[in-house]
Write a structure and sequence with these properties.
Oligomer: heterodimer
Structural class of chain A: alpha/beta
CATH architecture of the largest domain in chain A: 3-Layer(aba) Sandwich
Radius of gyration of chain A: 24 Å
Number of domains of chain B: 1
Helix content of chain B: over 70%
Strand content of chain B: under 5%
Largest sheet of chain A: 6 strands, mixed
Strand order of the largest sheet of chain B: 1-2
Largest sheet of chain B: 2 strands, antiparallel
Low-confidence stretches of chain A: none
Largest interface: A-B, 30 and 22 residues
Mean pLDDT of chain B: 85
Chain lengths: ~325, ~325
């Protein structure tokens, strides 16, 4: 059974269609990334999913429960982290989690142990008696993640979990999300940081102008949108000779000499049509012909390229 | 064959009233903890008690000065006791009318402004629990204000002149007023987006209901006294309608209702019913004492506003 299912969902604000006929499914255990430019409709989509907004048209199901008809059941299944961290200035970290545990009706005797475990998971045990407003943005985001997990939801919905974080905090949140995913949770998250999405997600949905432009795994999207495999080759000398040699090879559709590189290496980018065996053959032939190959790799996880090819920069 | 016993199914309960859940409301604990950590809470309490104590001292000194030599006269002591009691209750009513909405007008708007309302709305907390929790914590604080005045008020009990009826009625008026004005703040907070707008709206409606009505009553009283004395041909029906309208207006004002109740208690020695002859100069009528109308009206209005607030919080954004 799908964890999340959108069926032809639309939402209009003052004659502006924020979400337009969106249909997609997320299976249990998936990490699904929702990407798109500002104003694409990602946050509206998420707010409808977490019962904060009502769709004008269509239906959304979470774990088989309708978001419109049984919102209370949906809230049991989901943990929602909005794009801005909700701060209660006058609470300690412990009190903050205790409060939300009570809001989720977790019996009093269980709360202390649960909070202790969660603080350990997000590595905040040493700050449990500190006031929430003394935490850095990265630590607040970790606390937010602990809050989301307090009632052990099967689905996490995270709106821009890494926004505003420094690179280190970003990596830490990414690691945390992977750890949470290993617990078997389904995760839907939106992000502007494509590298995070590429690294974390099993599938990606790209939204633009309220519409879901495309959905699939990164390799599926790459295959669909980028017709050739991209191969990077670097050699030490004989640039012209190497370019001519590569151009004559089978399965090589195009060879581009990469300029503007300060290193002593000569870089080529190839559009390649063959399979892995053909790629292996190509490398062998380069070495047999005494080209001093120092780098040979395939460009993968080209989410940026997929994103640019999918979106047109239209804001709804 | 033996007749089958008829099993009567108990009717399904429409409302599942869970008292334990009400006591375990996390919003009450959170709000009270936050309030008690805030320095302003104690500053407000100190200011409130100092103001009431100052007024009591002024009355004590003023009456003591003007009636020196009567210190042991029981009538004098009773007058002094009644004056202190009445003043304390009136100041309490006035202050609670102003503090109540101040405590609650930002209750839900500040959650919106801090973006925490979304978090709460996606938990299993019901809108009723959220609104009730916010209201209860404010009302508990207002009750604290009322109870802390008791030592000052007890000066009146030492001097005498204050009956049980006055104590019970004044306590009821204070409790209902606290709940009403706290609910008023919650009501505006539930549908307005900004705390400033909710606060201005709350105080605007208080100014209208408390002071504008006092002005209206005195103006109408003056005009009609002149009118009725100059024109004896005004029908009894017209006079009765006027009396009822004025009575309702007086009975729903937080300052006039206790004053008129006290006047009735002293002049008619009646707790529940009053003859209005002496009050507006119109033909006499027997009507319910203002405190009964006040408590009924403000309880109903509080309930309506509470339900409306829950509805505003419950409805998903559109």
């Amino acid at each position: 059974m799908s964890s999340i299912e959108f069926q032809n969902v639309s939402k209009t604000f003052a004659r502006r269609k924020a979400v337009d006929s969106v249909t997609f499914k997320i299976e249990s255990g998936e990490i699904f990334g929702l990407v798109g430019p500002n104003g694409a409709g990602k946050t509206t989509t998420m707010r409808m999913l977490v019962t904060l907004l009502q769709p004008d048209q269509g239906e959304i199901f979470v774990g088989g429960h309708s978001v419109i008809k049984t919102p209370h059941e949906v809230r049991r299944l989901i943990g929602f982290m909005p794009d801005s961290f909700g701060v209660y200035d006058d609470m300690t970290v412990n009190e903050y989690l205790e409060f939300f545990a009570a809001c989720y009706r977790i019996p009093k005797p269980q709360r202390a142990g649960l909070i202790k475990d969660l603080l350990e998971l997000v590595d905040l045990s040493h700050r449990h008696n500190d006031m929430v407003d003394t935490l850095s943005t990265g630590l607040k985001q970790r606390l937010g993640l602990a809050r989301v997990l307090i009632h052990d939801p099967s689905i996490l919905i995270l709106d821009e979990p890494a926004s505003g974080l420094d690179p280190r905090a970003r990596v830490e949140i990414r690691e945390l999300l992977l750890e949470v995913a290993r617990l078997g949770k389904t995760i839907l998250f939106s992000s502007h940081i494509l590298a995070d999405v590429a690294e974390l997600c099993t599938r990606v949905g790209i939204m633009e102008n309220g519409k879901l432009a495309t959905v699939g795994s990164l390799s599926q999207l790459s295959q669909k949108l980028i017709p050739h495999r991209q191969i990077k080759v670097a050699i030490l000398d004989k640039a012209e000779e190497a370019q001519a040699f590569l151009s004559m090879q089978q399965n090589v559709a195009a060879v581009r000499l990469q300029t503007g590189n300060n290193s002593s290496r000569i870089h080529f980018e190839l559009d390649f049509n063959g399979e892995d065996n053909d790629l292996h053959e190509l490398l062998n032939r380069l070495l047999e012909n005494k080209f001093s190959v120092v780098h040979f790799s395939e460009e993968t996880q080209k989410l940026e390229e997929v994103f640019m090819r999918t979106t047109k920069g239209i804001i709804s | 064959m033996e007749p089958q016993p008829i099993i009567v199914q108990p009717p399904k309960r429409k409302f599942n009233f869970n008292f334990e859940r009400i006591l375990d409301n996390p919003v009450i604990a959170k709000e009270l903890r936050g309030r008690m950590r805030d320095r302003r809470t104690f500053i407000l309490l100190t200011f409130y008690l100092s103001l009431i104590a100052a007024f009591v001292c002024m009355i004590y000194l003023f009456l003591g000065e003007s009636t020196s030599g009567l210190a042991f006269d029981p009538d004098y002591r009773q007058t002094l006791g009644k004056s202190i009691f009445g003043t304390v209750v009136l100041i309490e009513l006035l202050l609670i009318s102003f503090i109540g909405p101040g405590l609650t007008s930002g209750a839900l708007t500040s959650e919106r402004e801090h973006r925490t309302l979304d978090l709460l709305k996606t938990t299993l907390l019901t809108p009723g629990e959220l609104v009730f929790g916010k209201l209860s914590s404010a009302v508990i604080y207002l009750f604290l204000l009322i109870f802390t005045v008791l030592p000052i008020q007890s000066l009146a009990f030492i001097l005498g002149g204050v009956g049980l009826a006055e104590v019970v009625i004044s306590s009821l008026l204070l409790v209902v007023t606290s709940i009403f004005f706290a609910t008023l703040g919650i009501f505006f907070s539930s549908f307005l987006k900004r705390t400033l707008a909710a606060t201005v709206s709350s105080y605007g409606s208080i100014l209208l209901s408390v002071f504008a009505i006092i002005f209206f009553v005195f103006s109408m009283s003056f005009i009609t006294t002149v009118m009725f004395s100059n024109n004896p041909n005004i029908s009894k029906l017209n006079q009765d309608v006027f009396t009822i309208i004025m009575w309702l207006v007086v009975s729903t004002n937080p300052i006039l209702a206790p004053i008129f109740t006290e006047v009735i208690l002293i002049e008619d020695q009646s707790i529940f019913i009053s003859n209005t002859t002496s009050l507006f100069g119109t033909s006499g009528m027997y009507l319910l004492s203002p405190w009964i109308i006040y408590i009924f009206t403000y309880t109903v209005l509080s309930l309506i506003m509470l339900l409306a607030s829950i509805w505003f919080v419950k409805r998903p954004e559109r």
